[in-house]
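WARN no homologs supplied; continuing
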Amino acid sequence: MKQGTHELLVLVGKCADFAHSSAEEWVYASLSAAQQETIQKNRRPQDRTRRLLARFLLALGVQQLDGTIPQKTLAALTHAPSGQPHLPGTALHISFTHAGEYAACVIGKSTTAPHSTRVGIDIEQVQPLQLEDFQRVFTLAEMQEIRDLSSAQNSQNMQDELIRRWTLKEAILKVQGTGFLADPLELDTTQCPITAIMPTLAWTQKRLGTYWLSIAAESAWTTLRVLMPEDLEAIV
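OK structure emitted
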Protein backbone atom coordinates (compact mmCIF):
# COMPACT_ATOMS: atom_id res chain seq x y z
CA MET A 1 0.00 0.00 0.00
CA LYS A 2 1.30 3.42 -0.92
CA GLN A 3 2.03 5.48 2.12
CA GLY A 4 0.47 8.92 2.00
CA THR A 5 1.45 12.18 3.56
CA HIS A 6 -0.17 14.09 6.36
CA GLU A 7 0.69 17.78 6.41
CA LEU A 8 0.05 20.24 9.19
CA LEU A 9 0.23 23.95 8.49
CA VAL A 10 0.18 26.34 11.44
CA LEU A 11 -0.17 30.09 11.03
CA VAL A 12 0.35 32.53 13.91
CA GLY A 13 -0.31 36.26 13.82
CA LYS A 14 -0.06 39.23 16.16
CA CYS A 15 -3.27 41.12 16.79
CA ALA A 16 -1.45 44.47 16.89
CA ASP A 17 -0.49 44.00 13.22
CA PHE A 18 -4.11 43.33 12.27
CA ALA A 19 -6.37 45.47 14.45
CA HIS A 20 -8.15 48.42 12.79
CA SER A 21 -6.67 47.54 9.42
CA SER A 22 -8.36 47.17 6.05
CA ALA A 23 -7.58 43.45 6.36
CA GLU A 24 -9.77 43.19 9.47
CA GLU A 25 -12.67 44.90 7.69
CA TRP A 26 -12.17 42.74 4.60
CA VAL A 27 -12.28 39.49 6.58
CA TYR A 28 -15.50 40.47 8.34
CA ALA A 29 -17.15 41.45 5.03
CA SER A 30 -16.11 38.12 3.46
CA LEU A 31 -17.71 35.95 6.15
CA SER A 32 -21.20 34.49 5.99
CA ALA A 33 -23.99 36.21 7.91
CA ALA A 34 -23.88 33.42 10.51
CA GLN A 35 -20.14 33.89 11.06
CA GLN A 36 -20.56 37.66 11.27
CA GLU A 37 -23.18 37.14 13.96
CA THR A 38 -20.76 34.88 15.86
CA ILE A 39 -18.11 37.61 15.73
CA GLN A 40 -20.53 40.29 16.92
CA LYS A 41 -21.41 38.27 20.01
CA ASN A 42 -18.00 39.24 21.34
CA ARG A 43 -18.52 42.60 23.02
CA ARG A 44 -14.87 43.55 23.45
CA PRO A 45 -13.18 44.84 20.27
CA GLN A 46 -9.98 42.92 21.04
CA ASP A 47 -11.93 39.65 21.20
CA ARG A 48 -13.48 40.34 17.81
CA THR A 49 -10.03 41.16 16.41
CA ARG A 50 -8.55 37.87 17.66
CA ARG A 51 -11.33 35.83 16.08
CA LEU A 52 -11.16 37.68 12.79
CA LEU A 53 -7.39 37.26 12.68
CA ALA A 54 -7.71 33.49 13.23
CA ARG A 55 -10.08 33.32 10.26
CA PHE A 56 -7.75 35.44 8.14
CA LEU A 57 -4.87 33.10 8.92
CA LEU A 58 -7.07 30.14 7.96
CA ALA A 59 -7.83 31.69 4.57
CA LEU A 60 -4.12 32.32 3.94
CA GLY A 61 -3.25 28.77 4.96
CA VAL A 62 -5.84 27.11 2.75
CA GLN A 63 -4.61 29.18 -0.17
CA GLN A 64 -1.08 27.90 0.52
CA LEU A 65 -2.24 24.29 0.66
CA ASP A 66 -4.58 24.03 -2.31
CA GLY A 67 -4.82 27.41 -4.03
CA THR A 68 -8.36 28.27 -2.88
CA ILE A 69 -8.86 32.03 -2.95
CA PRO A 70 -9.24 33.48 0.57
CA GLN A 71 -12.71 34.94 -0.08
CA LYS A 72 -14.06 31.48 -0.92
CA THR A 73 -12.65 29.96 2.26
CA LEU A 74 -14.05 32.72 4.45
CA ALA A 75 -17.49 32.54 2.83
CA ALA A 76 -17.62 28.74 3.27
CA LEU A 77 -16.46 28.63 6.89
CA THR A 78 -18.98 27.29 9.33
CA HIS A 79 -19.05 25.55 12.71
CA ALA A 80 -20.14 22.01 13.56
CA PRO A 81 -22.76 21.52 16.31
CA SER A 82 -19.87 20.70 18.66
CA GLY A 83 -18.45 24.18 18.04
CA GLN A 84 -15.51 23.11 15.92
CA PRO A 85 -14.72 25.21 12.82
CA HIS A 86 -15.48 23.36 9.60
CA LEU A 87 -14.95 23.84 5.86
CA PRO A 88 -17.73 21.95 4.00
CA GLY A 89 -16.74 20.24 0.79
CA THR A 90 -13.09 19.87 1.74
CA ALA A 91 -11.03 17.13 3.38
CA LEU A 92 -9.29 19.66 5.61
CA HIS A 93 -9.47 19.65 9.39
CA ILE A 94 -8.97 22.97 11.13
CA SER A 95 -8.70 24.43 14.61
CA PHE A 96 -8.47 27.98 15.99
CA THR A 97 -6.95 29.51 19.10
CA HIS A 98 -6.37 33.03 20.40
CA ALA A 99 -5.08 34.59 23.59
CA GLY A 100 -3.52 37.91 24.50
CA GLU A 101 -1.59 39.34 21.57
CA TYR A 102 -1.80 36.23 19.35
CA ALA A 103 -4.24 34.32 17.19
CA ALA A 104 -3.43 31.07 15.40
CA CYS A 105 -4.89 28.25 13.36
CA VAL A 106 -3.81 24.78 12.30
CA ILE A 107 -4.87 23.03 9.10
CA GLY A 108 -4.49 19.29 8.53
CA LYS A 109 -4.32 17.82 5.02
CA SER A 110 -3.86 14.17 4.04
CA THR A 111 -3.13 12.71 0.60
CA THR A 112 -4.65 9.30 1.34
CA ALA A 113 -7.61 9.41 3.69
CA PRO A 114 -10.95 10.74 2.47
CA HIS A 115 -10.93 12.97 5.54
CA SER A 116 -7.77 14.39 7.00
CA THR A 117 -6.63 13.64 10.51
CA ARG A 118 -8.34 15.75 13.15
CA VAL A 119 -6.22 18.52 14.64
CA GLY A 120 -6.21 20.82 17.64
CA ILE A 121 -4.30 23.93 18.70
CA ASP A 122 -4.10 26.13 21.78
CA ILE A 123 -2.05 29.13 22.89
CA GLU A 124 -1.89 30.73 26.33
CA GLN A 125 0.35 33.22 28.07
CA VAL A 126 2.40 32.22 31.10
CA GLN A 127 1.25 34.34 34.05
CA PRO A 128 1.08 34.13 37.85
CA LEU A 129 -1.53 31.51 38.75
CA GLN A 130 -2.34 29.41 41.79
CA LEU A 131 -2.09 25.70 41.06
CA GLU A 132 -4.79 24.98 43.65
CA ASP A 133 -7.31 26.82 41.43
CA PHE A 134 -6.91 24.10 38.78
CA GLN A 135 -8.17 21.09 40.71
CA ARG A 136 -10.87 20.55 38.06
CA VAL A 137 -8.24 20.52 35.32
CA PHE A 138 -5.29 18.58 36.75
CA THR A 139 -5.30 15.31 38.66
CA LEU A 140 -3.56 15.05 42.02
CA ALA A 141 -0.66 13.25 40.30
CA GLU A 142 -0.34 16.01 37.70
CA MET A 143 -0.44 18.73 40.36
CA GLN A 144 2.24 17.00 42.40
CA GLU A 145 4.46 16.63 39.35
CA ILE A 146 4.06 20.35 38.58
CA ARG A 147 4.96 21.19 42.20
CA ASP A 148 8.00 18.92 42.09
CA LEU A 149 9.27 20.60 38.94
CA SER A 150 8.89 24.05 40.47
CA SER A 151 10.52 23.14 43.77
CA ALA A 152 13.43 21.58 41.93
CA GLN A 153 14.00 24.80 39.97
CA ASN A 154 12.05 27.95 40.91
CA SER A 155 8.49 29.17 41.40
CA GLN A 156 8.27 30.66 37.91
CA ASN A 157 8.66 27.19 36.48
CA MET A 158 5.39 26.17 38.14
CA GLN A 159 3.41 28.75 36.14
CA ASP A 160 5.33 27.81 33.01
CA GLU A 161 4.64 24.09 33.43
CA LEU A 162 1.02 24.71 34.38
CA ILE A 163 0.37 26.65 31.17
CA ARG A 164 2.33 24.17 29.07
CA ARG A 165 0.12 21.32 30.27
CA TRP A 166 -3.04 23.43 30.07
CA THR A 167 -2.45 24.17 26.38
CA LEU A 168 -1.57 20.55 25.69
CA LYS A 169 -4.82 19.35 27.25
CA GLU A 170 -6.82 21.92 25.31
CA ALA A 171 -5.19 20.98 21.98
CA ILE A 172 -5.73 17.24 22.53
CA LEU A 173 -9.34 17.72 23.63
CA LYS A 174 -9.93 19.74 20.45
CA VAL A 175 -8.59 16.78 18.47
CA GLN A 176 -11.19 14.66 20.24
CA GLY A 177 -13.86 17.17 19.22
CA THR A 178 -14.83 18.41 22.66
CA GLY A 179 -12.40 20.99 23.99
CA PHE A 180 -12.94 21.63 27.68
CA LEU A 181 -16.58 20.56 27.36
CA ALA A 182 -15.11 17.15 28.20
CA ASP A 183 -13.63 16.41 31.62
CA PRO A 184 -9.94 17.43 31.45
CA LEU A 185 -9.22 15.22 34.47
CA GLU A 186 -9.65 12.20 32.19
CA LEU A 187 -6.62 13.30 30.15
CA ASP A 188 -3.41 12.50 32.02
CA THR A 189 -0.32 14.61 31.25
CA THR A 190 2.07 13.14 33.80
CA GLN A 191 5.60 12.79 32.40
CA CYS A 192 4.50 14.36 29.11
CA PRO A 193 7.33 15.49 26.82
CA ILE A 194 7.24 18.60 24.64
CA THR A 195 6.95 16.41 21.52
CA ALA A 196 5.41 12.93 21.30
CA ILE A 197 4.46 10.62 18.44
CA MET A 198 2.09 7.72 19.24
CA PRO A 199 -0.14 5.51 17.05
CA THR A 200 -3.32 7.48 17.74
CA LEU A 201 -2.01 10.84 18.94
CA ALA A 202 0.86 13.19 18.23
CA TRP A 203 1.75 16.61 19.54
CA THR A 204 4.43 19.24 19.72
CA GLN A 205 4.77 22.42 21.77
CA LYS A 206 6.61 25.67 21.06
CA ARG A 207 7.46 28.77 23.06
CA LEU A 208 6.56 32.17 21.62
CA GLY A 209 8.06 34.61 24.08
CA THR A 210 5.91 34.33 27.22
CA TYR A 211 3.36 32.08 25.47
CA TRP A 212 3.05 28.31 25.02
CA LEU A 213 1.67 27.04 21.70
CA SER A 214 0.48 23.42 21.56
CA ILE A 215 -0.35 21.57 18.32
CA ALA A 216 -1.92 18.10 18.29
CA ALA A 217 -3.24 15.60 15.75
CA GLU A 218 -4.77 12.14 15.93
CA SER A 219 -1.86 10.64 13.99
CA ALA A 220 1.74 11.50 13.18
CA TRP A 221 2.40 14.12 10.53
CA THR A 222 4.95 13.79 7.76
CA THR A 223 5.49 17.56 7.56
CA LEU A 224 4.78 20.39 9.98
CA ARG A 225 5.20 24.03 9.05
CA VAL A 226 4.75 26.98 11.38
CA LEU A 227 4.41 30.36 9.64
CA MET A 228 4.13 33.85 11.10
CA PRO A 229 3.03 36.13 8.23
CA GLU A 230 4.20 39.73 8.50
CA ASP A 231 2.55 42.92 7.20
CA LEU A 232 -0.90 41.33 7.31
CA GLU A 233 -2.66 44.32 5.81
CA ALA A 234 -0.46 44.22 2.69
CA ILE A 235 -1.52 40.61 1.99
CA VAL A 236 -5.13 41.57 1.21
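The helical segments are 22-30, 33-40, 45-66, 70-76, 140-152, 155-175, 232-235.
OK
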